[in-house]
Amino acid sequence: MSNLILVTGASGKIGQEVVKQLATQGAQVRAFVHSPQNAAAIQGLDVEITLGDLGQPETIKAALIGAEKLFLLSPLDPRLAEWEPNIIRAAQQAGVRHLVYLSGTNAQVDSPLLFNRLHGQSEVQLKNSGLAYTILRPDALMQNMLAHAPTIVAQSACYAPFPEGKMSLVDCRDVAAVAVASLTARGHEGMEYDITGPEALSMIQVAEKLSAGLGKSVRCVELKLDQYRTGLKAARMPAWLIDYLVGVAQYSATLKDNVITTVVAKVAHKLPITFDQFVRDHASAFMGAAV
Prior knowledge:
- By secondary structure, the protein is an alpha/beta fold.
- The protein folds into two domains: 4-138, 3-Layer(aba) Sandwich (Rossmann fold), CATH 3.40.50; 142-167 and 198-258 and 269-287, UDP-galactose 4-epimerase, domain 1.
- It is 44% helix and 16% strand.
- It contains 13 helices and eleven strands.
- The chain has helices at residues 13-24, 36-39, 57-64, 80-94, 114-127, 149-155, 172-184, 203-214, 225-234, 239-252, 263-268, 275-281, 283-287, and strands at residues 4-7, 29-33, 48-51, 67-72, 98-102, 133-138, 157-160, 166-167, 191-195, 201-202, 219-222.
- The protein has a seven-stranded parallel β-sheet, with helices on both faces. A two-stranded parallel sheet has the order 7-11.
- Strand 5, helix 5 and strand 6 form a beta-alpha-beta unit.
- The radius of gyration is 19 Å and the shape is globular.
């Protein structure tokens, strides 16, 4: 078997960073994407691109031919309840030697939150599969804050429910660095990594850091939960995603002592990116250029 690494979800925030970092290291990479449009995000890299659909097992089986390792990342979609068990079984059948699974923070089989529950179920299946595995559980991504760019540009404001609730925001580049280390270095089999940034921040503190980094005042406006739900509906989000995001907001409001881990430093051997650095790196988006 070759040293080929298959990366699913290769065009997403984390997936494309994993592909880029692996390619930079000279790894043999096969990037699994849903469409030619999605492939545009990783065009120009020295990687093999294969089109497929997580809901079509035959495309997964074909993509796994010759793969020694698998980075399993699924988009947030209720169908991952079917997708991920199928992919894990396909990896078993293909003789994959190591599967690195992108789960999520607080993944538990009995969680009231949809994707926390589905990720928890996939973790259990993976642990019982006989495959060598590594599980990654990143906290909320800094890149998700880019969704606030339009109102920051137009109104110098970001809107959020429960703005005092804190998140241990982590940059997707750091999540990818941990994934790449897990895929390419020895000693990560059987490990479970909770990945956070270097500090826990509320949306009020996020606004303060945006103000400092952008040189303009950015205020955080609190939304009532029904206002938040109405805004998500106006954005034409599906009902299941609205329910999940509202549930996450309610859960975040209950957090008192956010755990900060040293996984990025210990596994990826780098200092984690701070939110201040993230703002500097994405200042053009927050100031009005295209995200």
